[in-house]
Design goal:
Blueprint (H helix, E strand, L loop, with lengths): L4 H25 L4 H22 L9 H31 L13
Helix pairs in contact: 1-2, 1-3, 2-3
């Protein structure tokens, strides 16, 4: 992931929005899973806000190695949290015996 502030901002949104979209897709087909899906969506939204705030929460000079490391840490943390949330979704899908490739695509 990029160490550019704007690119990182977009990447955080994109990664976490992917989690939210996948949860909504499952929710449409399996509304009985709404409680846990809503918790995952809430966690993804909170994580997005937290990581976005962290992007500018530093005293590093632009272009410094410390700033690059700060951005890399945010990138790594966002990816790790996204994978954790997607694994929670996958557990729900397995419990519902969902084969994602069998489900028709949604048109948004």
């Amino acid at each position: 992931m990029s160490t550019n502030r704007n690119d990182l901002h977009q990447a955080v949104h994109s990664i976490m929005n992917d989690v939210v979209e996948q949860c909504f897709t499952h929710l449409i087909h399996y509304p009985q899973d709404s409680d846990e899906l809503n918790r995952i969506i809430r966690d993804a939204s909170e994580e997005t806000n937290y990581q976005i705030l962290k992007i500018d929460a530093h005293n590093y000079k632009n272009g410094s190695t410390d700033l690059d490391n700060h951005y890399r840490t945010i990138s790594h943390d966002t990816q790790r949290k996204s994978l954790h949330l997607l694994s929670r979704l996958q557990q729900i899908q397995r419990a519902a015996k969902v084969n994602v490739s069998d489900r028709p695509p949604l048109d948004f």
